[in-house]
Design goal:
It contains 1 helix and 8 strands, in the order αββββββββ. By secondary structure, it is mainly beta.
């Protein structure tokens, strides 16, 4: 009987100590931002019914959330786009770099009806192992600086609103 009580006491002590072992927990943060960028579109094929091309986009991100998460980050995005009739779809990758040089690579996927969904696939420094999701929608576009001809290189300027969440590993 005393042997059984000793095992129970040892088990209780071990379980009690296990509660104090630090466990890596994710820290979820919401964010909202504005991205203003210029994008150069490279046409592969263009007709009134079909459009296929790629684009190279560069811009700056401003936080519009009280957390100021991603404030003054820069973005470089490359993607391919398809247009059938008046409907567009696209996918690609975005490297977003903070003022400290650390960065997150996002995989993007979107269409003209539902906007863009981005998910982080790689991060450096404190962003290593980051998980999350961002939805982006257009806020405004500007009249192109150069005439829009949809010839080999067309540049256009715009701003997007991004809303999402991330989880950092502690």
């Amino acid at each position: 009987m005393s042997h059984q009580r000793n095992w129970i006491a040892v088990t209780v002590v071990i379980l009690g100590l296990l509660m104090f072992i630090p466990v890596a927990q994710a820290q979820r943060q919401d964010f909202e931002s504005r991205l203003c960028a210029a994008s150069t579109y490279n046409v592969v094929h263009f007709t009134p019914e079909w459009g296929i091309g790629s684009y190279d986009q560069r811009g700056i991100i401003q936080s519009t959330h009280e957390s100021k998460l991603f404030d003054n980050w820069t973005q470089h995005l490359v993607a391919v786009q398809k247009r059938v009739g008046g409907k567009y779809s696209w996918n690609g990758f975005s490297k977003e770099t903070g003022p400290d040089g650390e960065f997150i690579i996002w995989e993007i996927d979107g269409d003209s009806e539902s906007g863009t969904i981005s998910k982080p696939i790689l991060g450096t420094g404190k962003w290593k192992g980051v998980k999350g999701e961002r939805k982006s929608i257009p806020i405004t576009t500007a009249k192109p600086i150069l005439p829009s001809t949809f010839q080999p290189h067309t540049t256009f300027q715009f701003c997007l609103k991004g809303v999402g969440w991330i989880e950092l590993q502690k």
